[in-house]
Amino acid sequence: MNAPLRRVAISILVLFTLLIINVNYIQVVRSDDLRDDTSNTRVLAAEYDRERGSIIVGGEPIALSVPTEGRLKYLRQYPQGGLYAAVTGYYSLIYNNSGIERVENDILSGKDPRLALRRLADMFTGRDPAGGDVVLTLDPAVQAAAMAGLEGVTGAVVALDPSTGAVLGLASTPTYDPGLLSSHDPDAIREYAAELDAADPDPRANQATREIYAPGSVFKVIVSAAALAEGYTPDTVIPAPTEFPLPNSSRVIPNFNGSSCSSTGEQSLLDALTISCNTAFAMLGIELGEDKVRAMAEAFGLDGERLQIPLTVEGSTVGDIEDDAALGQTSIGQRDVRVTTLQAAMIAAAVANDGSLMSPYLVDQLRAPDLSVIDETTPEELSRPVSTEIANQLTEMMQSVVERGSGRAARISGVEVAGKTGTAQTPDAPDHNWFVGFAPADDPTIAVAVFVKNGGGTGGDVSAPIAREVMAAHLAGQED
């Protein structure tokens, strides 16, 4: 064989070798990844041949599959439309699934290893295969009150059972209809998706778990906790001037609307939190120092780490603190402090639960198609940011906020409520509005956080009334 033919033969041999290696890599090494890829529409189409499990709230399905006469045997439906969209997500033929539909797909589709015996039995008995159910922790009354309160605004509500971490409500607005993304008409799906793409903000963005915002004066609960841990008491008198020039800076921190917190220029820690005195907390944070403020914030969960509930929750953080001027701004929840609404609810829940912060969770049970329970969430403590004594002192201070301070709009007749308002300034836009709180203050069963983006008012007049209705809805349900 002459040299040119030899080179051609060697080249062909190398190409065939690479081809065989690539085929084996795809069929053996990557087979599972490619088969399970949610963008693989062939796999999704095959899933439509079996009945997908339901997502359950309060004993009723908020997502279920119904039989059809078409090529795809089952259609995914969401009976209550956008009420639970932030939780369920959607199950789409041409787009990646989202929400619980995505993170619990193996159970819902029937592919979970814990359902293997069921699948084997189906094969031998000729029974139609089916997926399992996902039972959520949500309280329908809480969810309905949260979505009603957020109507017409961009915002979020998260409510927790402080003693367990169970998520009682998780609402995000604007919302959307997941059923329109889960139809069997690709053109209609794409048309609706284009509408959502053009919206600002995109209704599919989960304001409760994935978006982070400056918390404003809600952060003063953390600074108060740091002070109490250092030996301060609610009655400790601290400086509270009308204005506070930040050290080594040309900036001045004023109080709300330039008001005076005290005629004497000082007040108790309790009174400072009650009326949300900016200058008092900016000076207090600097006095405590960055290490103590940051350590307490991280103990409450502002450590930058993501959570899985099992929805992914963006990490909340204190951010960078370059100097005392930055620390003063940080101490009133401005500068680089950023939190999710879920994290804000966790702050209130930790105080409500005697200083114990429970891991938040959204899934109560996983059930097989025969309704037998194959997994159940056991509550776990995530951290203990403060002692029971300090939690009780914070509760006393937060009760004062609602009884005679900035959170009066959260009061519920016949119920002691504890809370904290927040109004966060934003560049070139109306302020964000916050409220966190819990009830009943002496034996809490619900902790809540309400966020309204660019609401333009204060946390006390915008977010506190929503929190009141959410807490009242839960408490009314407990009386039934």
List the helices and strands and how they pair.
Elements: H1 3-29, H2 31-36, H3 41-47, E1 55-57, E2 60-67, E3 74-77, H4 85-88, H5 99-103, H6 105-109, H7 116-125, E4 133-136, H8 140-149, E5 155-160, E6 167-173, H9 186-198, H10 220-229, E7 237-239, E8 243-245, E9 252-254, E10 266-268, H11 269-274, H12 278-288, H13 290-299, E11 307-308, E12 312-313, H14 324-330, H15 341-352, E13 357-358, E14 363-367, E15 373-376, E16 381-383, H16 388-404, E17 418-426, E18 429-439, E19 446-452, H17 459-479
Parallel strand pairs: 1-4
Antiparallel strand pairs: 1-2, 2-3, 4-14, 5-6, 5-19, 7-10, 8-9, 11-12, 13-16, 14-15, 17-18, 18-19
General description of the model:
The protein is of the alpha+beta class and 480 residues long. Helix content is 38%, strand content 19%. The chain has a domain at 216-368 and 380-479: Beta-lactamase (3-Layer(aba) Sandwich), CATH 3.40.710.10. The protein has 17 helices and 19 strands. It has a 6-stranded mixed beta sheet with strand order 3-2-1-4-14-15, with no helix packed on it. A 5-stranded antiparallel beta sheet has the order 6-5-19-18-17, sandwiched between helices. Strands 7-10 form a two-stranded antiparallel ribbon. Helix 10 crosses helix 12 and helix 10 crosses helix 16 (388-404). It is globular. The model has no long low-confidence stretch (mean pLDDT 91).
